[in-house]
Every structure is written in C-alpha cells, then in structure tokens.
C-alpha cells in the first residue's frame, strides 16, 4: 500500500523545512510511541521518506502502539518495511527494549476530549506512567534526545492579557473538571520531564501543540474540525454545539511536524516550545463558515449538546505566542487555515478518512 498523495506532499514539505537538521537522524535508532495516531503516523512517514530519498544509511524505527484510538490502516503501507518494527503494547505498562536507542518521541496519548473523558484513567496512565517508563528507558540508554508531547491545554483558559500565550504563562486549569484527566496529566508530565533534566541531565524537550489538524484526523475523531467536516459531508449541515464565539488558532499538520522535529534535534534541553500558528485566530462560527464554504451547499445550525459537561472548562481563546520557537528553533508556520482546510477536504473526499 502506498502513502496517500496529499500526505506525501506534506511529508516532502516537512523534509524541505527541516533539511538543515534532519541528517542528524540518519542511521539512528528511534522509539516512537503512538505511531498509529494522527501526529505519530506523520512522523513515521517522514522518516520513511528520508530513508528512501535522503539517507545513505536508513534510520530504524521501533513503534509502540496499542491502537486504543490510533488507526492501524493509517500506517498499513509501512507493513513489511525492514526499517520499521511495530510492538502492540501499552506504553504505560513495564516494558524492555533491546539494544541502543538514539531518540525517543512520546506522541501516544488520548487527545480528543470525547475520548479522554471516556477513558480518563487510561489517559492519565499514558501521560504519566507511560512517560515515566520512557524517561527511565531514555536515561538507561543515554539517548541523544527525548521529545514529550504536551499540549496547549496545560494553559487552561488564559486571561485576555495572556493571549497570545507565552510558555511562561502558568495556566488557569481546573484539577477536578471533566477535562482535568488530560490537562493535569500533561502538566504533571512536564514536571516529570523537567526534573529528569535537572536531576539526571536527561536531554528532554517539551512541545505544546496548539490545535493541530490535517489529513489523518478521522471523521469520527470528535475534535471540532473533523466533526464539522463529518457533519458537512454526511449530513449537509454543520451543528455548532456552542454559541460559536470561542476562538482558536489552528495549525496545519506539516507546519507542526516541522516544529516538532526542530525541537527534538535542537540543543535546548529542559525547554518547552509552543507549536502552532499565530497568524489567524478565528471563532468557532467562522470555522464552521469556512468549512461550509469549502464543502458547499451547507447550512449551519446551533444545537445544544446532550452532554451537560460538553462546554465545562472549555477555553474561550487559544492562540500561541511563537516568539520563543521562532527565535530558538527557527519555527515558522506557513500554511493558512483556508489552504489547510482545502487540503483536508481533498483527503476526506478521496475516501481517506481512516
């Protein structure tokens, strides 16, 4: 099975954006968790592309995935690839990996609010115990770098004077609300990372993604962009389950993955980086309008969610301050929300909503 054309275009764009650093991965051994997930699968495709087109000696990947929310079909084209091995197991349980490991990337997580509220304990275990297992493994293997995927959710609902939000903002987060299993476990994960860096000198980096979207997000993911596309494509109307006023800045996947790789391969150990797009912060209603226009002949309806906790602790605004990422790791997102949504619509309409 071949890689999808749209995803291949994205992977080529990523390789061009990170060409100053990606050779550091040549011939290296990498452990990536959550490879069947939205972001993890792009990282696998990026390495495969580099192996085929840029590296004289291929990188070897060990992928840990239990497919709780990941998609086996998304990475089926890598089956039988000698440079990839797939371990079907839960990263939150004890495990061992033989041999050396150069780089570790922990993308495994349950990131959709619908699903992490369905699996709150599993979410906490992956974000805390899974991370601790990887930190201990990285310490024992003396890795060159480990990257932890945190989230912009660690900021909670920032005050207006903290929008755009800097990495120095400590957050406004409920520790007992319906989103706390995700938000607070990611915050504790960051604390673990920083203390492994301080106590053991572990070369850990943290990234905080801001509303990443693109091909690979399943129509049933339940996050807002695939949810609106699902409504538009299958019902001919979009249901907005709020008053439409909360604002978000959305970042296309190829821009985000470039930032993740640059963070991993940087020398900035013990640092956290916002990864997102700060060019256009739009309301949820404006997002619905854009998707309705891209799909065509779509109405927009306001519907009250049957879930009485649906909007509890929902941030009113979410927009990153990228000055640190721009200055330290040369991170510069390029894809506009309109272009990104058009690319995602092409992917969905080509029956690739796996």
Keywords:
354 residues; alpha/beta; Rossmann fold; three-stranded mixed sheet; 10 helices; 14 strands; globular
Fold topology:
Elements: H1 5-17, E1 29-33, H2 38-53, E2 60-64, E3 84-87, E4 103-106, H3 113-118, H4 120-141, E5 145-149, H5 180-200, E6 204-209, E7 212-213, H6 224-235, E8 237-240, E9 247-249, E10 251-252, H7 253-264, E11 271-275, E12 281-283, H8 284-295, E13 299-302, E14 317-318, H9 323-329, H10 337-349
Parallel strand pairs: 1-2, 1-4, 2-3, 4-5, 5-6, 6-11, 7-10, 8-13, 9-14
Antiparallel strand pairs: 9-12
Helix pairs in contact: 1-2, 1-7, 4-5, 6-8, 8-10
Helix content: 25-40%
What is the number of helical segments per DSSP (H or I, 4+ residues)?
A: 10
Q: What spatial form do the alpha-carbon principal axes imply?
A: globular
User: What is the CATH domain class?
Assistant: Alpha Beta
| CATH architecture grouping | 3-Layer(aba) Sandwich
Describe the biggest sheet?
Answer: 7 strands, parallel
- Oligomer kind: single chain
Radius of gyration computed on alpha carbons: 19 Å
Kindly identify the CATH topology.
Rossmann fold
Averaged pLDDT, please? 94
Structural class given helices, strands, pairing?
Answer: alpha/beta
Any idea how many domains?
1
Q: Quote the beta fraction.
A: 15-25%
Name the CATH homologous superfamily.
NAD(P)-binding Rossmann-like Domain
Question: Roughly how many Å apart are the termini?
Answer: 14 Å
| Beta strand count | 14
Major sheet: arrangement of strands: 3-2-1-4-5-6-11
Low-pLDDT residue intervals, each spanning 5 or more residues: none
- Give the helices and strands as they follow along the chain: HEHEEEHHEHEEHEEEHEEHEEHH
